[in-house]
Design goal:
The structure is a single chain. By secondary structure, the protein is mainly alpha-helical. Helices cover 82% and strands 0% of the residues. It folds into two domains: 2-64 and 153-169, no CATH class; 66-151, no CATH class. The protein has helices at residues 2-17, 20-32, 37-47, 52-64, 66-81, 85-101, 103-106, 109-118, 126-136, 140-169. The relative contact order is 0.14.
Length: 171
């Protein structure tokens, strides 16, 4: 699914005019987005023909930028947005989604968070991991460190997939 969404994003952005800097901006933006994150960014980078190491660095930065916002500001932002019914419904949906996955983190705490973010499976990633950690009341600094470490692991796995396995299919 991530591959299909990454292809859609590449076609929508079009590598922002096809210029090299535009391609890097495209994968940076994709990496910041929930659900896609670094995983989608690296697939998009391969589809755009970008080099692996530079793409990894740009996608990594794009994926970790939202982490402090999610970890430290999620609660006040949710509290503020709950004033409007549309946002209240969306926040309730986010919380239900997070609660449905919390047992994957709850028992192992920060190691569980690291693995949850680091193993690229559908519905996992830094956004959801940090949301779950916030709902569980986990310490913010340790949460951020575990999530960032998980992004590194996910990046390594996705490099192998995107530029190795997928690289054999897409020349």
């Amino acid at each position: 699914m991530t591959e299909k969404v990454a292809k859609l994003m590449v076609s929508l952005f079009g590598g922002i005019g096809g210029a090299l800097i535009g391609k890097y901006i495209t994968i940076f933006i994709i990496s910041m987005m929930p659900i896609l994150e670094l995983r989608g960014g690296l697939i998009a980078a391969k589809l755009l023909g970008l080099p692996a190491i530079q793409s990894f660095i740009i996608c990594f930065i794009g994926n970790i930028l939202p982490i402090p916002i999610i970890v430290w500001l999620m609660e006040p932002i949710f509290k503020f947005l709950r004033r409007w019914s549309f946002f209240d419904k969306f926040i309730t949906w986010c919380e239900k989604k997070a609660h449905s996955k919390k047992e994957q983190i709850e028992n192992l705490k920060y190691l569980g968070l690291f693995l949850f973010v680091g193993i690229p499976l559908p519905g996992t990633g830094a956004w959801m991991g940090c949301l779950i950690a916030g709902l569980l009341g986990m310490e913010k600094k340790k949460t951020a460190i575990a999530a960032i470490s998980g992004v590194v692991l996910a990046g390594i796995i996705m490099l192998i997939f995107s530029y190795g396995i997928l690289g054999l299919v897409i020349k």
